[in-house]
Amino acid sequence: MCGVVGVVSKSEVSPTIYEALTVLQHRGQDAAGIATFDQNKFHLRKQIGLVRDVFRDNHMQRLRGLMGIGHLRYPTAGSQDRELAQPMYVNSPYGISISHNGNLTNKEEISTVLIEKNLRYLSTDSDSEVLLNVFAHELQRQGTSKPTEKEIFKAVKATHKRVRGAYAVIFMINGVGLVGLRDPFGIRPLIFGSRENDLLGPDYMMASESNVLDTLGFKVERDVNPGEAIFVSLDGEVYKEDCIENPVHTPCIFEYVYLARPDSVLDNISVHKSRMRMGESLAKKINRLKPDHDIDVVIPIPESSTTSALQLATSLGILYREGFVKNRYIGRTFIMPFQRKREKSVRQKLNPIEFEFKDKIVLLVDDSIIRGTTSRQIIEMARSAGAKKVYFASAAPPVRHQNVYGIDMAATTELIAHNRTEEEIEEYIGADWLIYQDLEGLIEAARIGNPSIQQFECSVFDGNYITADIDSSYLQRLEEARGDEKKIQQFEFE
């Protein structure tokens, strides 16, 4: 779930990229980086930490250039290491850097080929470095001193043939331009836009979410299509080409549940409106299961569930109140690196307003239930504040399966819904009644926004991995490599 951005402009790009990263901060809190190109010089600053902590005035002054890319890291693999922060860079050919959101599912086999046959050196275990070297190798095979759009698109096509998984990518080729592309399924989002720059001509941006372009005065042109590549030259010329036959548009549905900001529009679907429809769907289910329910008040778990909770309350004709005060200086707990830190942060992040709970039957609404421990803590807080009963609703279905496409759900042992019934989950989190969204309702809530999308990537709910290269042995290796215990070991070692 990383955040990526790239800009080509007629003026200095680093201030724009910096502002873009602050808007995208919700997509990654582990590390941040910016790379720029200026008159045959490459500049890079990356470090562990939030955007505001990584970049100072002296750093920004050195990040000169009319072209650049930025990245926010949300780690699904690897440790807290500056070397794993992006952008990543290779010298050959031309000098190429990468900002990548997603995860490659065939990283191991590609790594072997890169090292043994392509004779390329890999300094980390990052799949982003693998993807960078694949593209660099394929571009080098074109055998030109300065690639044109034709050579670039040929390299992209060859890259698509070699890699599998989820990838929304922006490459910066020194002295040439930016290349943005999505995988053949369009799992991870990437938006393209432009902005008039006085009399100098248009600026161009590619970013993970549309709200970045809106905030910085860019016109959203459109989403980058699955399998498509957009090349923006250093001179500001734009070239586009479909680089794969018969793509199957399958965006990640969890973007609409939690990952994206509500003011974004991804693949022509408003995140805010989709969450409203999730709330309406939940309300229908509650009325179907218990038409004579005794709910006094609906309270959201801020903030990604607020829209769904408000619409649910409206649909049921029940009082809606905000019963938790959120400490906005605590990051998103879901994307913290391991469970112990997430649990500690919940109580620091939320504090109940007692009179909103006292002597009431409360329906708490959250966007999803992943590990269950934070839900249990929140329910305990509601009871301590005086609630008579605590019901709990999830705007998403039970998360029962690992995610292999760039979301931190690598270990089934950490998923409360894996091999548990809804009744068992209800008991574990301490709810008097647990209501999950139906998968059909969730899909419909998103698809109404763009009926042309026939399917969504829903593997965490249904276990259907669309790249068709995932088996039980792969999932086992993933669990061993990326579970919380492994992260704790890496953290303690470091």
And the CATH topology of the largest domain? Glutamine Phosphoribosylpyrophosphate, subunit 1, domain 1
| Dominant shape | globular
**SS elements, strand count:** 22
Distance between the termini: 24 Å
Explain this structure.
The chain is of the alpha+beta class and 494 residues long. The chain folds into 2 domains: 3-249, 4-Layer Sandwich (Glutamine Phosphoribosylpyrophosphate, subunit 1, domain 1); 269-326 and 333-451, Rossmann fold. It contains 17 helices and 22 strands. The strands form 5 sheets. Strands 3-2-4-1-10-9-11 form a 7-stranded antiparallel beta sheet. It has a 6-stranded antiparallel beta sheet with strand order 5-6-7-8-12-13, covered by helices on one side. Strands 17-16-20-21-22 form a 5-stranded parallel beta sheet, with helices on both faces. Strand 2 and strand 3 form a beta hairpin. Helix 9 (271-289) packs antiparallel against helix 14 and helix 11 (339-349) packs parallel to helix 12 (373-384). It is globular and about 75 Å long. Mean pLDDT is 93; it is low at 487-494.
Short summary of the structure?
The chain is of the alpha+beta class and 494 residues long. It is built from 17 helices and 22 strands.
